[in-house]
């Protein structure tokens, strides 16, 4: 990285500010690394991003700026070493810029430019903190791949911005105690700020359960491959949208869920979807319910789907769908009608 080529460092701040505003985002970040004064000057510009996505698996951070994007990928060594914690120092940083444009014939074209920067003596956590502090951004998203990586609450809060969305993944059926603790730490660190949460095979404990997470003020809550999920975990659900994939919930559980909704539970809910192994038995699903409307859908002369419209005690209507387009696999969906 050729930081030494910035010739305007000794210019007055107002002139420097005007020059900085003409530069590309990766150039501004490069300049901000030259000194504390340079970083302070960049902060004063109040430059904004559409979205920033952090991935601890590769690890990398992607910055969305309108039709363009900048990605910082931290190299961990020639032997494809992986990050173990946020204090790891990369060997170098690959910077790639993607620019969207159009040819004269109005055909879209994408141009890629790549650079390799030094690590600046910074850890991955310090890089994340520095880049995220350079711009104003309303939407920070992070993907945490937990396997053999240690995350503690203090480091997460120190290095990361307040996340809007988090995706947490584990990949082993029997996770280690360290993996369980790291997953818990990620959720505890950011749960007060998050609006969207995606959990895949994440083992949880009593001190932070699915029920605890579902009680928070979420827009979207997605749960995948959670072996011990029970209906009781959803009794205090406070999310607008909830999707459960590879669910073990039975049709009797879903019937009970619908009845709770008709009595006024889940007032914020707009959509509730469940996908998993089951049998499509409408008699079980709709037992004790009195739908207002019924619609039958046929495919190749055979009835494949039904839809029902129900109403709760407060006059709010919802559509119920259930279909089994895949063998031994049933999808259920409740959508509140506005």
UniProtKB/TrEMBL annotation:
Pfam family of the protein (one): FBA_2
F-box domain: residues covered: 5-52
InterPro entries from the UniProt entry: F-box_dom, F-box_Sdz-33, Zygotic_Embryogenesis-Asso
PANTHER family in the cross-refs: CYCLIN-RELATED F-BOX FAMILY, F-BOX ASSOCIATED DOMAIN-CONTAINING PROTEIN-RELATED
The protein's name: F-box domain-containing protein
């Amino acid at each position: 990285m050729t930081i030494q080529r910035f010739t305007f460092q000794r210019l007055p701040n107002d002139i420097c500010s005007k020059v900085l505003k003409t530069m590309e985002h990766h150039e501004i970040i490069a300049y901000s690394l030259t000194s504390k004064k340079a970083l302070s000057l960049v902060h004063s510009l109040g430059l904004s991003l559409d979205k920033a996505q952090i991935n601890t698996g590769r690890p990398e951070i992607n910055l969305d700026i309108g039709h363009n994007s900048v990605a910082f990928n931290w190299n961990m060594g020639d032997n494809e070493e992986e990050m173990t914690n946020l204090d790891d120092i990369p060997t170098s940083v690959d910077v790639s810029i993607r620019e969207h444009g159009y040819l004269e014939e109005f055909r879209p074209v994408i141009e890629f430019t790549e650079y390799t920067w030094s690590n600046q003596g910074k850890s991955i956590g310090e890089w994340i903190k520095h880049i995220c502090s350079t711009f104003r951004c309303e939407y920070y998203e992070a993907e945490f791949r937990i396997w053999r990586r240690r995350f503690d609450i203090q480091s997460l809060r120190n290095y990361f911005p307040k996340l809007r969305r988090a995706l947490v993944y584990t990949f082993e059926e029997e996770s280690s105690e360290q993996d369980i603790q790291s997953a818990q730490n990620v959720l505890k660190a950011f749960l007060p700020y998050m609006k969207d949460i995606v959990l895949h095979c994440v083992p949880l404990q009593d001190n932070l359960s699915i029920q605890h997470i579902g009680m928070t003020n979420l827009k979207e809550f997605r749960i995948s491959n959670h072996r011990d999920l029970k209906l009781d975990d959803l009794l205090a659900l406070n999310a607008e949208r909830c999707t459960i994939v590879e669910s073990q919930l039975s049709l009797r559980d879903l019937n009970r869920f619908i009845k709770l909704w008709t009595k006024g539970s889940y007032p914020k809910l707009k959509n509730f979807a469940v996908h998993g192994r089951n049998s499509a038995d409408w008699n079980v699903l709709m037992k004790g319910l009195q739908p207002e409307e019924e619609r039958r859908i046929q495919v190749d002369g055979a009835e494949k789907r039904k839809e029902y419209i129900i109403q709760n005690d407060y006059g709010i209507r919802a559509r119920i769908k259930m279909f089994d387009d895949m063998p031994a696999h049933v999808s259920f969906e409740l959508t509140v009608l506005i």
